[in-house]
Amino acid sequence: MHATIPQFPQFRSLYLQDHDVLVGFLREHPPYSDYNFTSMWTWDVDGSKQISQLHGNLVVIFSDYVSKDRFISFLGSQKVPETVETLLTYSQQHNLGGTLRLMPEVVVSSLPPSRADLRIEEDEGSHDYILSVELMKSMAGSKLGPKRNFINRYKRQYEKRTVVKKIDVQDPFVQQQIIALFCTWQKKAKKTCAETEDEFQALNRAMSHASDFDLHALGIYIDTELVAFSIDEVVHDGYGVIHYEKANNDIVGIYQYLKQQSAYMFAELGCRYINYEQDLGIPGLRKAKRSHAPIDMLKKYTISCAI
């Protein structure tokens, strides 16, 4: 880990300038969505995320995606048992919940199985869904039959008027189109500004700094109107990540068509897998993500003291 990252127990805010150092470290590990630099930085809209290093491991103080409660987590393979003990003590002493959360399976598997003093629990709502690019392109198989039907319904009604193209999210006109579509999605989803404020700010941060990340964006237009977009990233080990996607909910089949077109783009970029991130334990989101026939999960756990 680079000297610019403070040694534990010192922490500091996450800076855009940390990109190269942290991406170099993160590439040594499976591409968990929580430990994706683009996600970490763009969603840190209130500047509350804190980073440190301990025994060469990356330590992060996160805020819960729903409750905003702060907690501690880490990624790395060095002195894992010692790091767990130190961070559990720190979490208890500094009002961070007393539990290590979003702990990647690759870290947890480094712990000796005989640690009866630890309570290690699978955190199903935090698992990342892994989709197959080829399967999303073909939408083959019985599990994806409903999505094929929606795509066919979309094509029958709109294909002749549809243009699918890569878009430059740093172009001011494209940004205006994306913001307008975001507002349309918000209204049709009957969400308040307060409910979508963090995502709206994160989206704007991503667009404003797209050149600092390996972002690729796709737009779907009916006539000249942007009706769907996806802002994605190519990471390592053949993975792509879907960071932001929105569509006009009134258009039947648009989300299924968007997912298929995004898969075509990922394939062109050399990706074999898509990290579709977690469902946060929200039933509707879980149902939607499972409907994409995931081929794997990047699992995460919580670790706390058993006593």
TrEMBL record:
<feature type="domain" description="Phosphatidylglycerol lysyltransferase C-terminal">
    <location>
        <begin position="33"/>
        <end position="303"/>
    </location>
</feature>
<dbReference type="InterPro" id="IPR016732">
    <property type="entry name" value="UCP018688"/>
</dbReference>
<dbReference type="InterPro" id="IPR016181">
    <property type="entry name" value="Acyl_CoA_acyltransferase"/>
</dbReference>
<dbReference type="InterPro" id="IPR024320">
    <property type="entry name" value="LPG_synthase_C"/>
</dbReference>
<dbReference type="Pfam" id="PF09924">
    <property type="entry name" value="LPG_synthase_C"/>
</dbReference>
<protein>
    <recommendedName>
        <fullName>Phosphatidylglycerol lysyltransferase C-terminal domain-containing protein</fullName>
    </recommendedName>
</protein>
